[in-house]
Every structure is written in C-alpha cells, then in structure tokens.
Design goal:
Layout: H1 3-10, H2 20-23, E1 24-26, E2 33-35, H3 36-41, H4 57-64, E3 70-72, H5 91-102, E4 108-115, E5 118-125, H6 136-152, E6 156-162, H7 171-174, H8 176-189, E7 194-202, H9 204-207, E8 216-219, H10 230-237, H11 248-253, E9 259-260, H12 266-277
Parallel strand pairs: 5-6, 6-7, 7-8, 8-9
Antiparallel strand pairs: 1-2, 3-4, 4-5
Helix pairs in contact: 6-8
Length: 285
C-alpha cells in the first residue's frame, strides 16, 4: 500500500462523505434547490412553489396512519402476461424490472390501520410502477381493498396516480373498469364511504372509472386529471383549450371535484371526512 493510500484511508470522514445527491433536492417545477431533510419534512412539497412531488405507497402510509403503524394487505395472485405481449421487451421482463425497482408486486398497494384513531383501509397507486397503469393485478388489488374495508366495516380511501390502462394486457385491462365499479357497488351496499384523493397524474381509463366515483373527490394541488391529453382533445374538437384546464384547481372551479388539499393537511381532512361519513356504530372502538 502506497503512502497516499495510507493517508487517504486514514481520513475518517471520506467514506461517510455526503454529496449533492443526498443533501439537496431540486424542484422539478421551479428548479429551487432545497435541503432533502427540509423537503421531506414538508411532505415532499417544494416550500417555494408548492409543487407536490410524486411519492410512493410507503411514504404515503407513513404520513397518514397513526404512528406510521399499518398492516399491508397481501397482493392478490393473478395470471401474468395473459396475452404473451412483446414490444421492444417482453412484458414479463418489464414486470420484473418494475418489481426490482419498486419492491412491490404491482401498481396498487393496500394497507389497513388507524387514521386519527379510526379504522380505515387505504389504497395507493404508485406511478413509479409502470406509470401506475391499470391491469388485472390493479383491478384485483382494488377489489381486495374494497372487500377488506367491508370486512373491517371501515371506509376505503384510494390515492390514484396512473397513466391509464396497461396496454400490454389489451382488453383485459379495460375490463377492470366495470369490475372496479361493481366492487364499489358492494361497498355502498355495505353503507361504507369511498373517498378518492386524485394525485398527479390521474388519466385515462382510471379517470373514466373508479377515480371519479368517490363519495368525496379530493385532489392535491396542481394534479393533472383528465381522460385524453390536451393536444389530442384540441385536435379532435379543433378548438384551443384554456391553460391548465386539466389541473386540480380548474376542476374544482368547474365542479368536477370537491376540494383541493395541501398534502400536509390531508390527514386532518381525511380524518374529519371519515368521522362525518362513517355510521356511528361502525367507527373504531
């Protein structure tokens, strides 16, 4: 070992050196550099422009459940790659890559726990898993979440984030639209509330089905919500659409959703809605 290696290895702080990548977070909207710790303490929201960054199921559950304590519901077993789909890659390879990157079986994860002392089941769609796309596994997870809520006599709260139906499953992905709608009929027959929180982005077949069927529709600030893209709509109707017409604030102004809530206030707002909507004899003891 040379004298330079001995000196370098003897400096205690070098292996623990922090870099710009783990100290700072750059806002995707305004470009502001924010300390990661400050950004995380602000619920992954830019303190300058209020841009709500996308977060996954684990972070969402920790922010909402009391003392960050919850029980994950097992992902339903479904047939994978029923069409044996292949584009530039095999569909099975894309699934393996998404699972390795996210650590989840598919794009919708459910958990049960308590929200301000009240029993709830919460589902979170992860845009990081193949764009949160809706396929057979997402439909099965949605049904499982609804039935877990019925078994617990608790509300079902869903956070949506999706680019639409999963093209690799063709018509089978579109069949999840009526399937989830029927599951919601079971939830309503049981007299339990269904609350939807629309996050960025919620589009396509998800918007055309369970994302817009909540008893209460909430959205995070600035969330993109729509069916088709703005350019596609403009080319179809041959008219220029107003700026931001698919953003949460525009939808609130035009009566499509009930409220836009900053992420830091979501837990308090959801707890209030659960207390108000849940029948007295079914609230947590």
């Amino acid at each position: 070992m040379s004298w330079l290696d001995r000196v370098r290895n003897g400096i205690p702080f070098l292996p623990k050196r922090q870099t710009a990548e783990n100290l700072w977070h750059k806002c995707k909207r305004c470009g502001t550099m924010v300390f990661v710790k400050e950004w995380e303490e602000n619920y992954s929201v830019c303190p300058r422009c209020n841009f709500h960054d996308r977060i996954g199921p684990t972070t969402r559950f920790e922010q909402l459940f009391d003392a960050a304590q919850y029980e994950l519901l097992p992902a339903p077993e479904v047939r994978e790659d029923p069409l044996r789909f292949r584009d530039t890659k095999r569909y099975t390879d894309r699934l393996k890559a998404a699972r390795a990157a996210n650590g989840e079986r598919d794009a919708l994860v459910n958990a049960r726990g308590k929200l301000d002392g009240q029993k709830v089941v919460i589902g979170v769609q992860d845009f990081g898993f193949m764009g949160g796309s809706m396929g057979i596994a997402v439909g099965a997870a949605f049904v499982a979440g609804v039935r877990a809520a019925i078994a617990d006599q608790a509300p079902y709260i869903l956070f949506t984030a999706a680019g639409g139906a999963r093209m690799q499953e063709g018509i089978l992905s579109l069949m999840q639209m009526p399937r989830t709608t029927v599951a919601l009929a079971e939830l309503r027959e049981a007299g339990l509330p269904y609350i939807v929180v629309l996050t960025d982005p919620t589009t396509g077949g998800v918007t055309a089905s369970y994302a817009m069927l909540g008893d209460v529709q909430i959205a995070e600030p600035g969330a993109l919500i729509g069916f088709a893209g703005q350019r596609v709509i403009e080319q179809t109707i041959r008219e220029k659409l107003p700026e931001g017409f698919q953003r949460a604030e525009y939808l609130l102004e035009h009566g499509m959703i009930d409220m836009v809530v900053w992420r830091g206030d979501l837990k308090e707002k959801l707890a209030l809605l659960v207390a108000y909507l849940s029948p007295e004899d079914r609230k947590a003891a």
